[in-house]
Amino acid sequence: MIVQRTLKTLTKAVGVGLHSGQRVELTLRPAPVHTGIVFRRVDLPVPVDIPVRAESVTDTRLASTISAGQAKVHTIEHLMSACAGLGIDNLYVDITAEEVPILDGSAASFVFLLQSAGIAEQSAPRRFIRVLEPVEVRQGESDQVKWARLEPYHGFRLSFEIDFRHPAVDSTGQQVVFDLSEGVYARDIARARTFGFTRDVEMMRANGLALGGGLDNAIVMDDYKVLNADGLRYDDEFVKHKILDAMGDLYIVGQPLLAAYSAFRSGHALNNQLLRALLERPASYEIVSFDSEAQAPRGFASLQPVW
Q: For the chain, which ranges sit under pLDDT 50?
């Protein structure tokens, strides 16, 4: 049987929020079966739990934000991506501020934290959302078009194409396909960092955003080149980070997807719209479990136990 997974013990990290610049402590704790992933704002006078699900998303500008009442947590996608890549189903995330720490700008630090705590199998079947028919969302026209799509697939495959029209980006890979049955998330995707342009960073900081961003936690580019002294971690790091983000955004649905995801110039907003479009059409999906590894897609039956 393919079973649910949580952590063996708790683990902690301290960092700053990418946009807030605020110091934040993060504690990842084991959770019982069927809990899902739950953020807990422990800094509030009365702690507030914010369960991760598609309808909890209340803002998708620059990051994915979830809310419960007035309590919010920003920039959850990198941690969610690590949970998706490692197959973590149940987790409590205690947080002392409004934003998840950016750490090194990728999901690699979260992968390290989760693996350091150890991954424990639990005594309940893992539940998957199997897509039965195509679902697509689109925005814009002609050269401004963006889209994202889910199609039936016995496994989890992501295909992403970017189009930034910038010399530093154009000289790298513009399209990546990652299949969980063939690739290794921690090796192939997790180390891809978020990226931005100096002209945008200056504007964002003037509006109180990107206050915690810098060359140690993002790829930064001027009008022509990458400014980071150590260059890129992957030849196609830009588009791989979009895959990383998409994995985190899609895992917000609450269960792993069995689907082929494809996208062109998509982002947090379209990814959440895609999940909501799926959930609004009950005939387009079903919930399934697998009694044996032989029945399950290979990528889910043999999720990487260590780094």
A: 306-307
Residue 169 and residue 162 in contact, taking contact as beta carbons nearer than 8 Å: yes
What per-residue confidence (pLDDT) applies to 303?
62
| Contacts of 48 by beta carbon, 8 Å cutoff, 6+ apart | 40, 41, 68, 69, 71
Tell me, what's the pLDDT at 207? 73
- Range(s) of the chain covered by CATH 3.30.230.20: 3-125
The Cα–Cα gap between 286 and 251 comes to 16
- The Cα 252–Cα 34 span in angstroms is 15
Domain made up of 3-125: CATH architecture: 2-Layer Sandwich (3.30)
36 φψ region: left (φ > 0), alpha (ψ -120 to 50), beta (else): left
Instruction: Quote the tokens at residue 91.
Output: 């987790």
Predicted confidence at residue 307, as pLDDT, reads: 35
pLDDT for the residue numbered 306: 38
Yes or no: domain 128-301 corresponds to CATH 3.40.50.150: no
Provide the pLDDT for residue 116. 94
Share of the chain above pLDDT 70, in %: 97
At 231, list the tokens: 């260059």
**Cβ-contact 99, 22 below 8 angstroms:** yes
> Which residues are catalytic, by number?
268
Query: Quick one: pLDDT at residue 302?
Result: 64
| Token couple for 47 | 């702690």
Structure tokens at 189: 């995707």
Length of the chain: 307
